[in-house]
Each structure stands twice: as structure tokens, then as C-alpha cells.
Amino acid sequence: MSEKSPAAAGRIAFLGLGHMGEPMAVNLIKAGFDVVGFDVVPAAMDAAAKAGVPCAASAIEAATGAHIVLTMFPSGDILLDAYRGVGAPGLLESAEPNTLFLDCSTIDVAQAREAAALALAAGHRSADAPVSGGVVGAEAGTLTFMIGAEEEDLGHITPLLEVMGKKLVHCGGHGAGQAAKICNNMLLGISMIGAAEAFVLGEKLGLSHQALFDVISTASGQCWSVTTNCPVPGPVPTSPANRDYVPGFAGALMAKDLGLALNAVENAGVAAELGPMAAQIYRKFADEGGAGRDFSGIITEIRDRSGS
Ligand code: NAD
After folding, report:
1. Are 229 and 240 in contact (CB under 8 A)?
2. Contact partners, residue 235, CB within 8 Å, separation at least 6
3. 130 C-alpha to ligand 1 centroid (Å)
4. Any idea where the domains of the chain sit in the sequence?
5. Residue 174 CB neighbours (<10 A)
6. 261 FRET partner, CA 20 to 30 A, in 126, 130, 249, 283?
7. 253 CB near ligand 1 (under 6 Å)
8. DSSP 8-state code for residue 287
């Protein structure tokens, strides 16, 4: 049996079969991995079962006998509760010794480190591997994984991650994957606000969107927020601006990730100004109707405030 064969990974408990988790689990099954899923929401389990994911009656049942417990949850609080158990034994107590706990959710860096420490103290192994690429990337198996893990655990998780993603970056030890993810997304939030402000200023100064795009995309202001996810319709036909800001990357998720970045900035004592400001701007955007719109829709809010 080759190190890379699905059978070498052993059974995988896949917990959290939501927008991202379900297609990721389906891709593992299609590649021949032995997966047992569970979600607390019956409708999510029904949908996953219909898509071909065998499901257990509880998280503990799914984790029993699993070699890897993969989680794809909304938050770190939920992860820590599931690991510890609330009023009943949790996953860490129920799993076989030396199980690899692989968390792919996007959570607080401090909570990721706490989760890893709890797993190790309970006699298990741990890795964090948050993703970027969204539901489209989860379905296509083209996610980017940012990995925080010990070298000796990489061989065990790489075959699975290679099925679900196309780019894997080992960022360091426990928590390093989450740290890299929120640093990137803090910069993304800031750069999108900057791009949107530049286009609104251009509009006020009488520039066409195309002219400004042609300059920025080949000059020093060049960035993903302009060249790939351009906040105005026209210059980049595939950007969400061309379909009334249907995500893409939803405002609610940007607000969540910037909230995590803000926690990390405060905990680390970084004298950041733009990151916390971006967190505030996207929180307001999400609360005031932008939660389900692409985050580049922030430009409409800037236009409103500019009387455009
Ligand atoms: P989601 O809410 O659709 O899915 C999360 C699932 O976890 C839900 O179905 C929920 O019922 C389930 N769940 C909650 N508690 C559970 C428990 N104790 N046991 C079992 N299942 C439980 O969220 P999503 O969009 O799939 O995102 C999952 C994670 O991936 C989040 O951390 C998110 O920030 C991150 N992420 C999402 C995207 C995206 O585009 N959706 C992109 C990158 C990263």
C-alpha cells in the first residue's frame, strides 16, 4: 500500500457538511477515501447523504475508529466545544489515541493554538489547514490550503489535501495556517476598500472605469482587488460587479475574517490602523445589507456616502 493511497489515510470522520464541507467530503469519496460524515443540521446531512457521503448518527460515532477527524465548522467556539464535549464526552476523549485532528475551518488563531494543545494533551495529533477558494474551489477541488502542522504529520494529511485543493502551503507549526489566512484576508479587505475608493474618486474626477483600470492594472496600484475582483463592472468580465455583486466572497465572511484579524492584531500588540478600520467598515457593510453580497459591493456604500 503506497503512502499516498487513500487506504493509507485510514477512515476520515468529516464533521461539518455545510457549503464547503459537503463538496470537500464528496471529492474525498470520489478519490477513494473512506469517509464518514456528520452535521448537527439534519438538512445538511440529508443533502450530503444524497451527494454520496455516508453519515453517522453523531459526531462521536463518526469519530470512533477514525484515523483523521476533519472539521469544517463556522467558528472556534464550536470547534473547542466539540473537542471538549459539552455535558458529555467530547471528540478528544472518544477518539482512538493518536488520531490526527485536522481543522480546515477559519477560526481565531489563539483558539487554533488552544485546540492543538488540547489535542496533543489528550494523546492525539493536530493540524490546522484553513482554505481559500470558496465554494467554487471546494466543488472543483482547487482550494488553497494554508497548513499549520508538524513536519511528521504532513505526509499523513497531504494526500487528502491534494484531492481537495490544488495549492498547499506549509506555513509552520500549529496555528500557522490560521495566522497566514487572516494576514492575507486583512490585506485583501484593506486593498478592496482602497480599490473601491480609487474608482469612486476616478468617477468624480471624470475618468472612465476602463481608463483607470488600464492604468492601475499595469502600474504600481496593481492588486487582486483590481485585476481579478474589480469592484466596477466592465474591465474584468468575471468579477462579481458584473452580476450585481452576487458572491464570490460574501461580505459576511469578510467581516468574520477581519474580526479574527482584529483579535490577532490586539493579542499580538501590533500598532495596525488600517486592519481595524477595515474590520469596522466590513462589519457595518455586513450588518446593513451587504452580508450576502460580494465584498467588492463595498463600492456602492462608498458611492452612497459620497453622494454619487
Ligand atoms: P456553513 O455554515 O455552510 O457550514 C458549517 C457546517 O458546520 C454547518 O452545516 C453546521 O450545521 C455544521 N456544524 C456546526 N456545528 C457542528 C458540530 N458541532 N458538529 C457537526 N457539524 C456542525 O459554513 P461554510 O461556508 O461551509 O464554511 C465553513 C468554514 O470554512 C468557515 O469557518 C468559513 O469561514 C470557512 N470558509 C468558507 C468559505 C466560503 O466561501 N463559504 C471560504 C473559505 C473559508
Report:
1. yes
2. 209, 210, 213, 214, 217
3. 11
4. 6-173, 180-305
5. 22
6. 126
7. yes
8. I
- HEC string of 255-278 equals HHHHHHHHHHHHHHCCCCCHHHHH
**Ligand 1 close to Cβ of residue 18 (< 6 A):** yes
Q: Is the pLDDT of residue 1 over 50?
A: no
Helix 274-285 vs helix 298-305: crossing angle, to nearest 10: 90
Residue 211 Cα, ligand 1 centroid: separation in angstroms?
40
CATH class of the domain whose range is 6-173:
alpha beta
Q: Which CATH number fits domain 180-305: 3.40.30.10, 1.10.1040.10, 2.170.8.10, 1.10.357.140?
A: 1.10.1040.10
Q: What is the mean pLDDT of the chain?
A: 96
Backbone angles phi, psi at 132, to 5 degrees: -130, 155
Cα separation, 148 vs 169, whole angstroms: 9
Task: Measure the CA–CA gap between 19 and 179, rounded to whole angstroms.
Answer: 23
Compute the distance from residue 281 Cα to the ligand 1 centre, in Å: 24
Q: What is the pLDDT of residues 77-115, one digit of tens each?
A: 999 999 999 999 999 999 999 999 999 999 999 999 999
pTM above 0.90, yes or no: yes
What is the distance between the alpha carbons of residues 134 and 60, in angstroms, rounded to a whole number?
28
- CB-CB contact of 129 with 159 (8 Å): no
Residue 50 among the catalytic residues = no
Q: Is 131 in the pocket of ligand 1 (CB under 6 A)?
A: yes
Residues whose CB is less than 8 angstroms from the CB of residue 71 and which lie 6 or more positions away in sequence, other chains included: 15, 16, 79, 82, 101, 102, 103, 104, 105
In the block, which residue shows the cell 475582483? 229
Length of the chain, in residues: 308
Query: Which residues are CB-contacts of 20 (< 8 A; sequence separation ≥ 6)?
Result: 72, 104, 131, 134, 135, 138
